[in-house]
Write a structure and sequence with these properties.
The protein is α/β, with parallel strands linked by helices. The chain is 44% helix and 16% strand. Helix 8 runs parallel beside helix 9.
Length: 375
């Protein structure tokens, strides 16, 4: 059986798409092909990557959907599985013209996320968000199944389509093989993932200046793509802020290098702002930190607060408050025994509750059920 996975917004080696879902399906015996923006077609880890030209703008991304549809139709797969809302028309066309089941894999609250997008005129954002929400839910009725990432999101889509499964985007235990921490590490602060204003970039920059005043030898790395488009004017001199807080922008790194970065860190940050999207999301970075046995300082709201409180794996700071973030970072740096205990608690909780290996059977069972009904 051939599975064709489609994405217009993610690289083909994306952690969820390639390392988790595609590899799970390949290991279950499916032939898997991923159609995605990529420099060239190739085969990686037994999975064929069918490249469409990379995109350089949002407009180009939407135009690229025609190429993705054409490639997908040529594949003549037994089942299609797409990951981005701009591919909803592609999914509908494939289901109608190829007469094959199509799965929509929903990663986030796309409508809510549009309320904070600086490239949409502010007065239009509520209208755009409501329109996207309506069209997404309406289209969901037509697909063979809907995959979501948490209970709340599943509830929203169940109203439209009862067939689906929650696949928490938990880290791969096999990718994050760390010994349970036994000693405290030298001060090294990590933020992992894409970073912008709403993900806490301004807060980190201000907080690290305060932390450096107490711990002059402190280092902080931000690992992932950086978006400075919506920063406040006071952060126009980004290089100055980086120097004052001893912060380094590491940029995007391959998924396979993430464990090395986690291993060298002593604590990690989840300083997201309480946007509608983040209030409902489980940040994967939080679970990856726990897998590495790192104490965490996170924002006091939503799933971030719930997971840190429940598992006693870090400290909580008022969202958007750099003084509070700095104070909690310093509290862990000043008390290595407490930091070590938080790291150990997080490590224990990860292995008991938060691994992809505990989720993957749900994906295999969903596919089996869909294909049974389709034959």
């Amino acid at each position: 059986m051939k599975v064709c996975i489609l994405t217009s917004a993610h690289p083909p080696l994306d952690a969820r798409i390639f390392h988790k879902e595609a590899q799970t399906l390949r290991q279950a015996g499916y032939e898997v092909v991923i159609i995605a923006p990529h420099p060239a077609s190739e085969t990686v880890g037994g999975i064929r990557i069918c490249a469409v030209p990379p995109v350089t703008s949002r407009r180009e991304r939407f135009l690229r959907t025609r190429d993705i549809y054409a490639q997908a139709k040529r594949e003549q797969a037994d089942i299609y599985h797409f990951h981005d809302p701009d591919l909803i028309p592609v999914g509908l066309l494939l289901q109608k013209r190829c007469h094959k089941p199509v799965i929509y894999d929903v990663h986030e609250y796309y409508g809510d996320s549009l309320l904070t997008r600086h490239w949409i005129p502010k007065g239009l954002r509520p209208i755009v968000a409501r329109t996207v929400n309506y069209l997404e839910k309406r289209a969901a009725r037509s697909f063979a199944a809907i995959i979501t990432v948490n209970t709340h999101m599943a509830g929203l889509f169940k109203r439209e389509n009862p067939v689906g499964v929650i696949l928490h985007n938990y880290p791969l235990a096999s990718q994050f093989v760390f010994p349970r921490p036994e000693v405290a590490k030298a001060p090294f602060v990590l933020y992992l993932g894409g970073i912008n204003r709403e993900r806490g970039l301004e807060v980190i920059l201000q907080a690290m200046v305060l932390v450096k005043a107490k711990f002059p030898g402190i280092k902080c790395e931000l690992v992932g793509p950086v978006d400075t488009a919506d920063l406040s004017p006071q952060f126009s001199d980004l290089a100055g802020w980086l120097e004052r807080g001893n912060v380094q922008l590491r940029g995007k790194v391959p998924y396979t290098e993430v464990p090395k970065l986690l291993a060298q860190s002593s604590l990690a940050l989840v300083p997201l702002l309480p946007t509608l999207n983040y209030q409902k999301a489980i940040p994967v970075k939080l679970l990856e930190y726990m897998a590495a046995g790192l104490p965490v300082v996170g924002s006091r709201f939503g799933y971030i607060e719930a997971i840190i409180r429940q598992n006693h794996c870090g400290r909580l700071a008022e969202a958007g408050n750099p003084e509070a973030l700095a104070a909690e970072i310093c509290s862990l740096l000043e008390d290595p025994a407490a930091a070590l205990a938080c790291g150990q608690n997080g490590w224990d909780a990860f292995h008991q509750c938060y691994t992809w290996e505990s989720e993957q059977t749900k994906l295999i069972d969903l596919y089996a059920g869909i294909l049974r009904r389709a034959t």
